[in-house]
Every structure is written in structure tokens, then in C-alpha cells.
Specification:
The complex is a heterodimer of chains A (about 280) and B (about 290).
Chain A lengths: L1 H16 L10 H8 L1 E7 L1 E2 L3 E3 L5 E2 L1 H13 L2 E7 L4 H7 L4 E2 L7 H6 L1 E2 L5 E3 L1 E6 L15 E4 L5 H9 L3 E4 L2 H9 L5 E5 H10 L7 E5 L6 E3 L2 E2 L7 H16 L1 H10 L4 H11 L1
Parallel strand pairs in A: 1-5, 1-6, 10-11, 10-12
Antiparallel strand pairs in A: 2-3, 3-4, 7-15, 8-14, 9-12, 9-13
Helix pairs in contact in A: 9-11
Chain B lengths: L7 H4 L6 H12 L4 H23 L7 H14 L7 H26 L5 H15 L3 H11 L3 E4 L2 E4 L2 H27 L2 H9 L4 H31 L11 H12 L5 H30 L4
Antiparallel strand pairs in B: 1-2
Classes of the chains: A alpha/beta (about 280), B mainly alpha (about 290).
């Protein structure tokens, strides 16, 4: 009895003091090629950029991008499902080689992970408006009831500058949609990429509604990321070159067309700029 | 003279006999009809969702039943070539229960130790983990443990589900320790005295005389805690494990149909109910069978 307890204690102590640090990979690009597998963290709760099909496979625009990276490297692809709260941790820990997970590019995040330049995508603000309301810009929303989602970064400005008391913020997407369909507001303000996709996917439901870009808000770029010390190493450079290629060759435009159904002005512009 | 218990102040007032005290309430709540009622309510929810879908009919959408059927294999068994879904919930519940039971056994015995230091430390550990929210413990374990450990040159990965299992085993350990302590205390003192007169050592008395008598009275509350643990396993979805809850939410995100909310979560509830209900029935049966007359 005593010996087995002692053994347990010894093992526990060994676990507790075992060094958790491990040497940084000399060259991650080489490691990936040697391993023969590229591990990419993507989302599974943000259709159509990253979602599961009913067989459980992860599909979407970002998984397709990941597949293209694997093809370029000539290795197998392994997709790991990440959520907003653990995506940067997974990258730091080395659980994933690359993260393509709808992450907005911010200065704070650039201190933690290596966000690759150029960025590959961006989402702006748009309104899904009743065509009869004839909304052309945010200025047209004065004094009109407008639906939005609670917690969106543009709500404050929308309310103070344009709608005043007439902004109705809902908790979830379905509720806001229902309010719009019921005519409780003239339009629903949300991330442009999601609205464009909704309109394209559910054409019949949104007949008589149009998506109008609200250019008062600048688009927020989405960046894919590698480990922070890899950003200027071969792996980071390889990814920067890959994104540049994607923009130049129109790969991203094609993928967006395939998954979202239509193209966002930001991506078309970025593609045109890259081609010059 | 050596007594089986040092001082009463540390152990506190004796708990009521565990079979009745720990789990008596289940007997009142569960009737044999409960299964039929839950399944009936689930059917009503699905039909209501179906009617709602008909009303909206925004486009060509699958019927609710067909959608549920399509996602069921994923929610039950997880993504292909990956262990997940409801099967993972069950695996986590087994493992957490095993860890919690073994650790709780020692912690419970520690609480009746002759050494005041061991007794007090065991008591403190038990009280801490018994009275902390499960989700908070889960977050602590997730954040405090590394994702891999190195022992003598070997790298052992610690996947998120394993860490989550360990996190869930802590409250189980503390609660089982109380069951152990309570049932040891409920064994008549004469058993200890007879053992001592027959020259059994204290260790022999505990392992060969007292604990075997405790097994019967510990089993129903232990099973009750197993059912509670199983129903708590969806908590691990919050820390990024591909359990049934996470996959249900992924399915809802992919479908983008509000009328699916209730039927999808209803389906998940049915899975857990169908698994846990027989355990509850069996617990009640054992409780009656092992009832300690006092």
C-alpha cells in the first residue's frame, strides 16, 4: 500500500515539475513538409466561411483556402475546428500550423500571433433594406426604425449619428430577420458579407429587399495567421506569397463566388490592386 | 485506546445515512411514465417546428425530421476519423467517474485518518471542490494544465477532452469522498472494536472489514452522482471539445433555420434522457433493495 502510494506521488510530482517548454521549431515550413501534413485551424460555426456538413466534414471558403495551401506544399491537409476563444492559443501552442478563422486584424492581435500581409478578406457594414424604403446611405436612415444585433461595434455611431431612438437591437439573427420580415423596421444593419450571402441563398425569402453597403464604416480586414516568430521566417513568407497569388490569380474571388454566391466590393478591389 | 475516529469536530456531525440522504429525492421525481412524457413532448416540439417551417417556407428547405435524421450520426458519434459527439460525452463520464471514484475513496479515508494533518488537509480539499462551480473548475484546469507534458524524453499530449475530463472528476472526487466518509461513519463502532480485538491492523480493518460493508450503501448515491456527472458533460463544449453539444450548435449554425432550434436541442435532450433515465430507475431499485433500517 505504502509503496504504491509513494509511486503515485512520485509520478504526480514528476508530472508537476516536468518542463512544459519545448524548443521552437527551427523551420516550420521544413517541418510541415517532413511531416507530410499541414494542420490548419478553421471555424465550424460561421457559414459559409467555415461550417460542418451533415457528414461531419468541415467545409466552406476557408477550408478550401487551406486545401489550396496543402496542395501547394504537396502535403496532406488536416483541419482542426477552432473557436474565437482558442484560435490564437492553438497557434501559440503549435497545435495548428496556420489559422484561417474569420479573424479580424487588430493591432492587439498582431502582438500575439503573426498576421500575414496582405490580408485575404474584409467585412464592412451593410443594410438589408426593404426596397420601398429607398435607402442609399446611412444618412437615409434618419428617423426610420432600423433593426440591428446587440453588441455590434457600429451600433453606437448608428444610433448617435443617424437613427436616434429608432434603432432596435436584437439578441439573435433569427429574431432580427423576423422583425424585418414583419415590417417592424425598414432594414437590418449587419456585417455586409453575411447579408450578401443571405440574400443570395434565400432569394425567395428576401425578394423586395436589397443589400446596400454603408460606406460610412470602413471594412475591417480579416487576416490569416502563423506563429508570431514565424512571420518573417520561410513559413510566414510562404503564406504571404500564397495570399498574394490568391489575390492576383483571382482564386479568392472564385472561392467567394462559389461559397457566398456573389462578390464583395472589398475583395474585387483588392484583387484589382494586386493585379496591377 | 485507538479509536476509529480521532475527534468529532473535524469530521463534523455525522451525515444522515447516505442512501436516503444523498439521493432520496430522485424517487419522487421519476415515475415510469417519465420516458413516455419526454418523448411525447419532443414529438410535439418537432411537429410545431415543422408547422412553423411550413408557414415560413422561405425557400426549398428540408423537413425538420429529415434534417434531424441527417445530423443524428454526427451528433451521436462525432466527425469521421475523430472521436466525438455523444459517444465522447459517455467516454468522458466513464473516465471522470473512474478518476473521481479512486481519488474520492482516498480522500474520504483521509478524512478519518488518525493524523490530524491528513484529516484537515483532506477535509479542506473536499470542501473546496465540493463547493466550487463545476464550470469554474473546468476553466481552471483547462488554463492551468499544459497541452503536452514531457517525462523522461517522452512527449505526452494532453488533448482538451482529457483535461476537461480531469476537470469534471474533481467535484465528483469531493462528493464521493463525502459519501465514503458518511458510510464509514454509519458502520457500527462495534465492527471496529471486534476487529481490533482480533488483532487486525487499522489498514486491514478499513480495507477488509469496514469498506466491504460500505459498498452496498455507497452504490446508490454513487450511481446518482454518475447520472449528475453525465448530465454535466455538455459543459465541456464551452472549452472547445467536439462533444454532442458543440456539434449540435455547429449543425444549427450550418442550417441557419430558427425553427430548428427547439427540435435540435430537444433531440440532444432525448439522447441524455434515454441514457440517464434507466440509471435513475436502477438507482431507486438498489436503494430499496439495500435500504438500511435505522
Amino acid at each position: 500500500m505504502r509503496t504504491s502510494l509513494g509511486l503515485v506521488a512520485a509520478v504526480l510530482a514528476a508530472v508537476a515539475v516536468a518542463p512544459t517548454a519545448f524548443p521552437a521549431a527551427a523551420d516550420q515550413l521544413d517541418d510541415i513538409k517532413k511531416r507530410g501534413t499541414l494542420v490548419v485551424g478553421v471555424k465550424t460555426d460561421y457559414p459559409p466561411w467555415g461550417m460542418r456538413d451533415s457528414s461531419g466534414a468541415i467545409v466552406g471558403m476557408e477550408p478550401d483556402m487551406a486545401a489550396d495551401v496543402a496542395k501547394r506544399l504537396g502535403v496532406k491537409l488536416e483541419l482542426v475546428s477552432v473557436v474565437s476563444s482558442n484560435r490564437m492559443q492553438f497557434l501559440q501552442q503549435g497545435k495548428i500550423d496556420l489559422m484561417i478563422a474569420t479573424m479580424s486584424d487588430t493591432p492587439e492581435r498582431r502582438k500575439v500571433v503573426g498576421i500575414v500581409d496582405p490580408v485575404y478578406y474584409a467585412s464592412g457594414v451593410a443594410i438589408l433594406a426593404n426596397a420601398k424604403a429607398n435607402v442609399k446611405s446611412a444618412a437615409d436612415l434618419k428617423g426610420k426604425p432600423v433593426c440591428a444585433l446587440q453588441g455590434a461595434f457600429y451600433n453606437n455611431e448608428l444610433q448617435s449619428k443617424y437613427t436616434g431612438q429608432d434603432l432596435v437591437a436584437f439578441k439573435g439573427l433569427p429574431e432580427a430577420e423576423q422583425a424585418l420580415l414583419d415590417g417592424r423596421c425598414v432594414g437590418f444593419v449587419y456585417d455586409d458579407v453575411v447579408l450578401v450571402w443571405k440574400k443570395a441563398q434565400e432569394g425567395k425569402k428576401w425578394e423586395g429587399f436589397e443589400v446596400v453597403q454603408l460606406t460610412e464604416w470602413k471594412p475591417v480586414p480579416w487576416g490569416l495567421a502563423v506563429k508570431i516568430d514565424e512571420i518573417s521566417a520561410p513559413w510566414g513568407k510562404f503564406m504571404a506569397q500564397t495570399v498574394t497569388d490568391w489575390l492576383k490569380s483571382g482564386t479568392l474571388v472564385a472561392l467567394e463566388k462559389k461559397w457566398v454566391g456573389s462578390n464583395t466590393p472589398w475583395l474585387l478591389e483588392a484583387t484589382a490592386k494586386a493585379k496591377q | 485506546m485507538r479509536r476509529y475516529q480521532g475527534d468529532a469536530s473535524c469530521a463534523g456531525p455525522a451525515e444522515p445515512a447516505p442512501p436516503a440522504g444523498e439521493s432520496g429525492y430522485t424517487a419522487a421525481n421519476f415515475t415510469p411514465r417519465a420516458l413516455a412524457i419526454v418523448l411525447g413532448v419532443f414529438c410535439v416540439v418537432v411537429l410545431a417546428g415543422e408547422a412553423l417551417a411550413q408557414m415560413r417556407s422561405g425557400g426549398p428547405s428540408r423537413s425538420i425530421v429529415a434534417t434531424l435524421v441527417a445530423w443524428t450520426p454526427l451528433i451521436l458519434f462525432g466527425p469521421p476519423r475523430e472521436f466525438g459527439g455523444f459517444a465522447l460525452n459517455i467516454a468522458v463520464s466513464f473516465l471522470a467517474m473512474a478518476i473521481g471514484t479512486v481519488a474520492g475513496l482516498f480522500l474520504g479515508i483521509g478524512q478519518i485518518s488518525l493524523s490530524p494533518a491528513v484529516r484537515k488537509v483532506s477535509w479542506a480539499i473536499t470542501q473546496f471542490f465540493r463547493n466550487s462551480p463545476w464550470l469554474v473548475l473546468l476553466f481552471f484546469v483547462m488554463l492551468l494544465t499544459p497541452f503536452q507534458i514531457k517525462i523522461a524524453g517522452y512527449t505526452i499530449p494532453l488533448p482538451a477532452w482529457l483535461k476537461a475530463t480531469f476537470g469534471l472528476s474533481l467535484p465528483v472526487m469531493a462528493n464521493f469522498a463525502e459519501i465514503v466518509r458518511g458510510s464509514i461513519n454509519s458502520i457500527p463502532t462495534s465492527q471496529w472494536e471486534s476487529a481490533e480485538s482480533l488483532a487486525f491492523t487499522r489498514m486491514q480493518t478499513i480495507w477488509r472489514i469496514i469498506l466491504p460493508q460500505c459498498v452496498k450503501r455507497m452504490t446508490p448515491p454513487w450511481m446518482n452522482w454518475y447520472a449528475i456527472l453525465t448530465m454535466a458533460t455538455p459543459l465541456i463544449s464551452i472549452v472547445g471539445v467536439n462533444d454532442a453539444m458543440t456539434l449540435t450548435q455547429d449543425a444549427l449554425a450550418a442550417e441557419q433555420r430558427s425553427e430548428l432550434l427547439m427540435p435540435m436541442y430537444g433531440l440532444l435532450l432525448v439522447f441524455f434522457f434515454v441514457y440517464c433515465y434507466p440509471i435513475a430507475r436502477w438507482t431507486i431499485y438498489l436503494e430499496r433493495k439495500f435500504a438500511v433500517r435505522s
